[in-house]
Amino acid sequence: RAAGMSTSGDAQATRPPHQPIRRICCIGAGYVGVPSSAVIASKCPDIDVTVVDISAAKVAAWNSDRHPLYEPGLSELISQTRGVNLHFSCDMIGPLEGADLVFICVNTPTKAYGLGQGKAADLTTLEAAARHIVRTASQPKIVVEKSTVPVRAAESICTILRANERPGVRHTVLSNPEFLAEGSAVQDLLRPDRVLIGGERTDEGQEAVQRLVSDGNPRVSQTLEELVRQDARLKEAIADLRCPEACRSQRDLASLESVGRECLREIRRLLRQLDGLLDAVEGDAERARVEREARNCQRSLQASQEAMREAALQRKQALQEAERVDLLRSDGADGGVGEVQGDDGVARRRVRQREETAAAAASHVTQSLLLLSNQLAEQVEASSETANRLLRSSEQLTETGEELKSMTGHISTAKRLLTRLSRRDFTDKVLIFLAFVFFFSTCAYIVKKRTIGVTV
User: Where is the signal peptide (predicted)?
Assistant: First the structure.
């Protein structure tokens, strides 16, 4: 954990919805900035990434086919995304002004003079980048420090931004250090063993952390945003059902119920989609956050469904009561002029009103049956998906069992080979021992013969 910072896990579980990140500006076209930007552009096609640098020669090299540095897989990523959502530019103002998030990926060499010479990191370029951001940006930015820097470098950036910021423009600083190895930078970014994101211990800082974390998987972010939108639309329909001015007739009631049912179907579909995206979410903390959001949406769905049923029932009863009162009033009016119109006209009106009421009730029953049919279809679809998952899991277990059997056979073969080798080793030792005995016996025999011959 960076000093003065807190990791994304410290953020509160529930926060207001935020706007997704759509434009990123990376300051520094070097070893950290270009691979990071290329991977982001490749994995997030709806995010526009611009890498800026003051070196025109370096930018021109990145815009050509002769890149200034080599990393396995980097050229392929650049060729796929350059000109689409990855750009290289010497313009240090335009891309920065239009960006939602700014990466600082400048060089931080070892100090060549002064205090800490030969040991400490030279932060001159990093501080110059922070000053350029605060002078150029007229809108609040999320500033992410990714360069290789010592502890408390993010606090230095905060100090520079706070001392020079414009009125009403407050930037947020995050720390997202890189853990890249030369020769495997692209793979380290695609399959990181850890991701560290630190933010200021303020509501703005923690919201910025959540924005950066959630945009690691844009499909998940878009699904969560659509869930929020559909939930708001459903709550609006429920509020209209409870409002007499917004629902004055059976037609208005049917229309609002249709909107509510459509929202319920869409929310269920989005929840199933979110459940299918969980496997693609990287990191335990991010997966836990998405699962928590899904559970909250599920609970909200159940509460909204119950509230919609109650509101629709109450509004239906109120409309029926209003129709009954109108019918009684019309009966009274008809009785006053009965001598002119006669009993036949009153009877026909009553029959017509009853038929209209029965037709409205039949329409409501039909709508309810359609809703139940749709719900059953959705449940059947969900059951089918669950059965398919169980089938896939069963196949995987069968394959795992076959692999275990194969491994067991290999182990048994290896055990038999080891037994044979141990037996051969014992036989070799016995033969060597007998050879030594024969050798020493022969030597003793020769010595004995010579000794006897000398004596004679």
Answer: none
